[in-house]
Every structure is written in C-alpha cells, then in structure tokens.
Design goal:
Blueprint (H helix, E strand, L loop, with lengths): L2 E10 L2 E3 L3 E2 L4 E6 L5 H13 L14 H4 L10 E7 L4 E5 L9 H12 L3 E3 H9 L2 H12 L2 H39 L9 H14 L11 H12 L6 H14 L5 H21 L8 H14 L13 H14 L1 H39 L5 H16 L6 H13 L2 H16 L6 H73 L5 E7 L9 E6 L2 E3 L7 H22 L5 E5 L7 H14 L4 E6 L2 H10 L5 E10 L3 E5 L4 H6 L1 H4 L3 H22 L14 H14 L1 H17 L1 H7 L4 H4 L3 H18 E2 L4 E2 L1 E2 L6 E3 L6 E3 L3
Parallel strand pairs: 4-12, 4-13, 7-11, 11-12
Antiparallel strand pairs: 1-2, 1-3, 1-5, 5-6, 8-9, 9-10, 13-14, 15-16, 17-18, 18-19
C-alpha cells in the first residue's frame, strides 16, 4: 500500500519555508492553536494530491489558489513536494506534476484522489449539516462524485435545446418556402397548401402558356426543361425578363396605409393601457401569477420554494383567481396593446423587406442607381422599427408616425413603378413570353420550394419525435440518478449510523436518514431519531451530537469510496471536533483508529485533550505526534515538543530544563486540568463574559470543593497544599527570563511541577482517558468511567 512519507512546503499559505512534515505509516496527529498553520499543511496535501484546494477553489469571486495559495509575504509561487512510498521505494510528487509522468501505482492513487473525498474540514462539515436540502445536495454531490450522471443529463438538456433550435429553423424554412409557393402559384394566403392545390394551380398556369400539364408534382423538373425549350426563341429578351421581374417585386410592395392604420391603433391602445396602469396600487404581474399557480398545482407544492412558508393550494388558487379577475380588463387591454404593437412593427418590417428586395435588383434590372427618396424611406423604416422593438410612449409613436407620413412612402413606391414601366415600354410587347416565364417560375417554385416544404415537414415531425424521446430519456435519467443516489445515500446513512452508535451507545438517538425527495431534484433531507421521533438533528441534538452526525456521514462516504478504489487509503480530518465532550471525544478517537486501521490517518486539532486521546488510543501503532508551538508571519509554524506538558515534565528533557520553563509548562498543565475538573465536577466558577477562565478563579473555586470530598482530599492533600503554597511562582515565571524568573530555584520548580503532576495522577484515569467526574445518581461520589479512580465525600 502506498502512503505519505514526507511533505515539504515553501511559500505556501501560512508556511514560509517548512518545517517539513514526516509521516509514519499509520499517520500523524498534529496539535496547535487556531491560526498556527495546521490547515496550511492540509491545503498543501490536498493541492499536490488532487490539483485543487477546496478551501480556496470555492468559486467565490476573488478567492482562488492563484490569488491566495502563496504565502502573503512571498514574491515567488508556492513550492510543494510530497514523497509517497510503498515502504521500499519512494515516489516524489511535486506541485502540478503531470500524472502521466509518474509510475502506474502512483497514477492510480492520484487518480483516486482526484475522484474521491478523503479530506474533511470543519467548515465543510458545518456547511453540510446547516445547509438547506438543495444546498446539501450540492455539498454531498462533490463527495458522491456524480459527474457522470450530471454530464449525461447536461448532454440530454443540450440535445433538447439543439432540437428546439433545429425545430425553429425547420419551421422558418417551411414558412419562407410556403410564402414563395403561394406567391408564384397565385394561391391565397389562407387557401390550402397541399399537393393537390399546388398541382391544380401549376396546371392552370401551364394551360395559359399553352404547355402540357403534369400528372404529379414530381414531373415538374421534366416540364421545366420543355418550357425552357419553348423560351429559347426569346433568348434576346433576358433584359426584359429582369425588368418584368423587377416590376413584380415593385407591385408586391405593400401600401403604407397598413403602417399608418396600425400605428394609430397602437398609439390609442398604448395610451389607454398607460391610463389604466396608473390606477393600480403597486404592480400586477399576470404571467407571474399564472405561471406560479400552474407550478404549485402541477407539482403539488406544500411549501414555497423561495421563502419555505407553508402553501395551502386552495387558498392560493382562490387568491390568484381573484387577482386575475380583478384585473381582467387590464389583462385584455395589455393583450390588445401587444397585438397592436406587433402589427405596427410587422407592417413596417414587411414594407421595408419588400423595398430592400427591389433595391437589391434595381441596378441589375435597370442599370440605374436606386432612387435616394426610396433609399431614405428604407433607412427611416429601419430606424423606426429598431426604436419600437419595445413598447414606447404614445408621444414617441405619434412623432415617428408623423415622420413616416412626411416621407410620403406611397409616392416613392409609385415613382419606382413609373420608372420600371417606362423601361418596359422600350421593349416590344410579348404576351407569350410573359406566360411562359410565369409557367417556368411556377415550375421552379414546385421544384425548389415544394421540396423544401416537404423536407421541413419531415424534419419537424422528426424533431418533435426526438424531443419527446429526449424528454422521456431525461426523466428516466433523472429517475435513475435519484435511485442510484438514494442507494448510495442508504448505504452511507446505514454505515454512518453504525459509527454514530459506536460513539453514542445506548443514548436512544441515531437512526440517520438521507433522502432524495420523490418530486423535484437536487435536494437531500437529513433526519435522525431522538427518543423515537424523526426530525432534523439540529432541532433536538446538542452541538456535539450534531458534529458527530456530520463526521460519521463523511467517514461513511470515505469507507464507500475506499471500497470502490482501495488504491487511496488516506484519511485527513482537519480540526473537525470543537464541541464534543470528553467521553464522546475518546469514543470518536477509538472509532476512527479502529474502523480505519487500513488507512493512513492524518488528524489536526487545536484541542490538546483530544490530541492526548488520539495518542493514547494509537499506542502500539506507528503514528507521529507533532505540536505547533507558535506561528508568525516571518517564520510560519514553529514546532514544539511533541510530548504533552505532563509527559514533558516527567521526561529527562523536562527535568533538565530551566526552572522558569518547567514552571510555565506546569502552570499550563494545571490550568488545563482545572478547566476539565471544574467542568466534570460541576464546580461553580465566577462568571466571565468571554469564558476565558484563568488559573486563579479556577483554583480558588476548585480547592474548597476538593476539601469537601474526604477520600479525594486524603489522597491529594499533600499535592494540593504544595500547589497552593507555590502557585505564585507561576506569575514570576510568566515574566520569562526577566530578573524575577532568574531567581527561581530548581528545587522550587521541581516541587511545584511534581505536585501538579501528582495531582493529575489522582484526578486523571489513564485507562479511561478521562478526568474523574461527579456521579449525579450517587451523592458525593467522584469516579472515572471504569471506576479505576473512585472517591467518596463520606467514605
């Protein structure tokens, strides 16, 4: 099995230049106060193994590894090297090392690290527990690695969108070619446009040209060849054909009357709508009400997706319908206004489009420049059309209509027709040529436009079918993802609850459940039992129990991931325990080290007691213990002795240390011990707003309590009296290396530190790994969990 051997980091987050981390095969326990750089080492581990840093690469604006990955005082980029080993061979991996450049076993480990979750930070744990169901899904989505599901569903949505775009394009092609067919075959706008109607019109045009009819539209190409042969004698009249075509285009230019009438209607309705809207109190959003009610009814929503308040469908329906009925007149007026606006803009667009067609053929047909007056009309129509894409004021509408009227559009169009007819008079009249030209145009329309209509119809049917199939597949994919996710969540919840019961045995709580709802998507409900009642754990659990829930869920996910890809057997917990009491803290340590004995475990903490628990539970295994003593911007983390204060005071190094150093550590040990004893024995300590209880109030509150327990005082009297006599020395030593501290003798420091260590041995059970606590059921009894230490007030 591959495991981490060494981490070297420079200019990385809170690390200036080391110190390096050296791991044992079973793992590492790292303790240090908040803000001393523990998480910087976790960031470095994650970045080199996964290529990202989850504490920075969050997607938040301005927050990224590129911006904050390097040490704030460094001018050079971060340098990270991880040494991974199999016990025989070392594999160095540096920041941004390509996976393909590494040995295959290492490739497998890094590939699993990219795909799996093996690092838990307290921030992530709290975010998951406190998230709303939809956000919880996003949080756990990364842990569950649902990329393949999401990629597939994203592609389906892209396919549906692509089909929608193609469908719109096919409909547009159909509309354009149907319009061309109606124009060339002289069909009415509302008449039938099928094969029979087209065939009848084509044969009528052929009959006028004295050409043979066709039995079906497929014969149009052959008949067009025959008509070309009939037109051959008229080859010198190509120019006439162009001018005649130009005349047809000019004749198709609609009158400006439509623009004028539609503008007047639009202006009138716009003014009426504005007048009606000014009577409103607030706003009336008809579509929002209709769409919202439809959503509520179709999805049978029982709570608002925005504010999460309860929804009573009958009451909401009644209220919406009442509001719609109340403003029915305004709704109708808005509808008429929108139709009038569309008609006004459409009339201008139609007029401009036909003028542009004529402009495009003018030079070719007549050899003349397009008249400036007509060109000015096109420009003005374009400007007004662009200005009225959105609803304008009645004043703006009337102003622009006046300008269009002043342009005298119909006169400009009449001038165009006069110019074309004048040109036609220069050619000899040939009715036969015109009839044959019409026949050829009709046949060409069938050959080109009819085929495009048929193709567009077939494409529309195909795309409609495809959209229906994509919709079905999308629903099945969503259902399949939900089933797959729920299956994973059930496994995770069962394993997490198994872990939770180990930490909290016999407490009548647990029964963790993670559920994806039947309706909707992207949501996970987290519930658990509290004395038989199922609900959100935050509603009835203590903060420590809630922490346990989040931790157990992550551990269950890690176990699931490891079963899928055992190449990665690393577990990193970054300061995840904050509010767990001593008994559960120890149980948590035992759980992690037992259940993940096939992992290399890396745990950082600011809690020295949990650090001691981890060390005690990990005895006999290969764990490295490190303590960060200090941190500064200039130096980064600074290692302290890995021994706890108690172990250090009893060690050869501690015994040989300067008196002031011994007294400082002994005072710190006493303060930590008194905090735990005052808590476990329910000792009343004078209230402090910040909660930072210092040595003096702790000692003066604890000592009277200790004297009242006869058997405890008998065992610890000598040590208590010695501490009470000499504890003032701690204040002298606090002025480290000043002239007062220099006066402390070795004998004084030894007497005080020995008394504190001896008191700890009276009050702390190494077998249970806990301080003695008050037993509420037995008045005056103090005991550890296993009753190895037991004291009675009245023995």
């Amino acid at each position: 099995m591959l495991f981490l051997k060494q981490l070297k980091a420079k200019a990385c987050r809170g690390i200036v230049d080391g110190p390096e981390l050296n791991f044992e095969s079973d793992g590492l326990f790292l303790v240090g106060d908040n803000g001393t750089g523990k998480s910087s080492y976790v960031d470095a581990i994650e970045k080199v193994l996964t290529g990202r840093c989850s504490s920075l690469d969050t997607g938040d604006q301005g927050l990224s590894w590129d911006n904050q990955g390097k040490h704030i005082s460094s001018k050079s980029p971060p340098e990270i090297q991880m040494v991974i080993t199999d016990g025989n061979k070392d594999f160095p991996v540096e920041l941004d090392t390509p996976i393909t450049a590494l040995d295959k076993p290492l490739q497998a480990l890094l590939s699993a690290a990219h795909e799996q979750s093996f690092i838990l930070r307290r921030r992530t744990l709290l975010a998951f527990i406190n998230a709303k169901p939809a956000h919880r899904y996003e949080a756990i989505e990364e842990f569950l690695r649902l990329e393949k599901f999401n990629t597939f569903e994203t592609k389906l949505r892209a396919l549906f969108t692509s089909a929608e775009a193609s469908l719109l394009a096919a409909r547009a092609v159909k509309e354009v070619n149907e319009a061309a067919l109606r124009r060339q075959l002289q069909l009415t706008p509302l008449g039938a446009l099928d094969e029979a109607a087209c065939l009848k019109q084509v044969n009528g045009i052929l009959e006028k040209a004295v050409a043979a009819p066709i039995a079906k539209l497929d014969e149009a190409a052959n008949r067009a060849t025959e008509v070309d042969a009939l037109l051959a004698p008229f080859s010198k009249m190509n120019e006439l054909q162009k001018v005649q075509g130009l005349k047809l285009l000019v004749q198709e230019i609609p009158s400006a009357t439509r623009v004028d009438l539609s503008g007047k209607v639009y202006s009138k309705l716009r003014q009426e709508t504005i007048d009606e809207e000014t009577k409103l109190k607030g706003h009336f959003y008809e579509e929002v009400l209709k769409s919202g009610l439809k959503w509520i009814q179709e999805d049978s929503l029982d709570s608002c997706p925005l504010c999460e308040n309860e929804i009573k469908i009958a009451e909401v329906t009644k209220r919406v319908e009442a509001r719609l009925a109340e403003h029915e007149g305004l709704s109708k007026l808005r509808g008429r206004q929108s139709a009038a606006h569309a008609e006004f803009v459409g009339a201008m667009a139609a007029l401009r489009s036909e003028l542009v067609k004529v402009q495009g053929k003018w030079q070719e047909g007549l050899g003349l420049a397009f008249p400036e007056a007509a060109g000015a009309v096109i420009s003005r129509l374009n400007e007004v059309g662009m200005a009225h894409k959105k609803l304008e004021t009645p004043e703006a509408i009337q102003r622009d209509m006046a300008e269009l009227q002043s342009a005298d559009i119909d006169s400009s169009v009449a001038a165009l027709l006069t110019t074309v007819e004048t040109k036609l008079q220069t050619y000899p009249s040939n009715e036969r040529y015109q009839l044959l030209t019409n026949a050829k145009a009709a046949l060409q329309a069938v050959i080109v436009n009819w085929k495009k209509v048929i193709t567009a119809n077939a494409e529309t049917v195909r795309l409609n079918t495809a959209q229906g199939q994509i919709t079905i597949i999308s629903k099945l994919a969503e259902q399949g993802r939900k089933i797959a996710v729920q299956g994973l969540l059930d496994r995770i919840a069962a394993k997490a609850d198994e872990y939770f019961q180990i930490i909290h045995p016999g407490e009548n709580i647990g029964g963790l459940s993670l559920k994806v709802p039947d309706r909707g998507t992207g949501s996970i409900a987290l519930t658990s039992k509290f004395h038989g009642k199922q609900g959100d754990p935050r509603g009835c659990y203590s903060e420590g129990h809630v922490d346990s829930v989040g931790l157990c869920i992550f551990l269950a996910i890690r176990r699931l991931h490891h079963s899928q890809k055992p190449e990665l057997a690393i577990l990193v917990l970054d300061d995840v325990l904050h509010s767990v009491d001593g008994e559960h803290r120890l149980a948590t340590a035992k759980l992690i080290l037992k259940e993940f004995d096939d992992h290399q475990i890396i745990i950082t903490t600011h809690d020295p007691l949990w650090f001691e628990n981890l060390k005690a539970v990990g005895q006999g295994r290969k764990f490295r213990h490190l303590r960060i003593a200090n941190w500064s911007l200039a130096t980064g983390p600074v290692w302290g002795d890995h021994l706890s204060d108690c172990e250090w005071l009893k060690s050869a190094v501690g015994l040989a240390a300067k008196p002031a150093d011994r007294i400082i550590k002994a005072g710190r040990l006493l303060e930590e011990m008194l905090q735990n004893l005052c808590d476990s024995l329910s000792v009343a300590v004078p209230f402090r707003l910040r909660g930072d209880y210092t040595l003096d109030p702790l000692w003066t509150s604890f000592l009277p309590k200790a004297k009242k327990n006869a058997s405890f005082y008998a065992a610890a009297q000598v040590h208590l009296e010695k501490i009470d006599e000499l504890r003032r020395l701690r204040n002298l030593a606090g002025a480290h290396y000043n002239q007062w501290a220099a006066l402390l003798t070795g004998n004084e420091s030894k007497e005080l530190s020995d008394a504190i260590v001896a008191l700890r041995e009276c009050a702390y059970c190494p077998d249970c790994n806990q301080f003695v606590k008050r037993i509420p059921e037995l008045d005056g009894v103090w005991s550890c969990k296993g009753e190895h230490l037991r004291f009675k007030a009245n023995p």
